[in-house]
């Protein structure tokens, strides 16, 4: 999904997010492309960040901050804290 909730009202956004989570619970892989980092972190299990056409990091969403995602988004590396970097 690329920007599945763009331009929608808040209730519809949550309906879409609930549908995505229901599919995840069934074991379905969901590829989500979005720009709202809070939503991305909340909905994702893992997040892959690309910079300049290359993967700059794959992180565990439970162990990442928006600031660290921002570093990956501009091509910087982040220090592994024992978790999060794959």
Quick recap of the structure?
The protein has helices spanning 10-25, 37-43, 66-73, and strands at residues 46-51, 54-60. With 86 residues, it is α+β, with helices and mostly antiparallel strands.
| Structural class designation | alpha+beta
The best one-word shape is: globular
Return the average pLDDT rounded to an integer: 89
Largest sheet: 2 strands, antiparallel
Q: What is the CA-CA span between the terminal residues?
A: 23 Å
Number of strands: 2
Low-pLDDT residue spans: none
If strands are numbered along the chain, what order do they take across the biggest sheet?
1-2
User: Hey, roughly how much beta strand do the residues contain?
Assistant: 15-25%
Query: What value does the Rg take, in angstroms?
Result: 14 Å
Q: What's the SSE pattern?
A: HHEEH
Total domains, how many? 2
What does this structure look like?
- The structure is a single chain.
- This protein has 86 residues and is an alpha+beta fold.
- The chain folds into 2 domains: 1-34; 36-86, no CATH class.
- It has helices at 10-25, 37-43, 66-73, and strands at residues 46-51, 54-60.
- Strands 1-2 form a two-stranded antiparallel ribbon.
- It is globular, with a radius of gyration of 14 Å.
Please give the structural blueprint:
Elements: H1 10-25, H2 37-43, E1 46-51, E2 54-60, H3 66-73
Antiparallel strand pairs: 1-2
């Amino acid at each position: 999904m690329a920007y599945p909730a763009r331009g929608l009202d808040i209730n519809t956004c949550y309906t879409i997010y609930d549908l995505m989570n229901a599919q995840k619970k069934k074991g379905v892989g969901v590829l989500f492309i979005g720009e709202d980092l809070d939503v991305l972190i909340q909905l994702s299990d893992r997040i892959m960040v690309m910079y300049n056409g290359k993967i700059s990091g794959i992180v565990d969403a439970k162990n990442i901050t928006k600031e660290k995602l921002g570093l990956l988004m501009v091509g910087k590396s982040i220090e592994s804290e024992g978790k999060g970097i794959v």
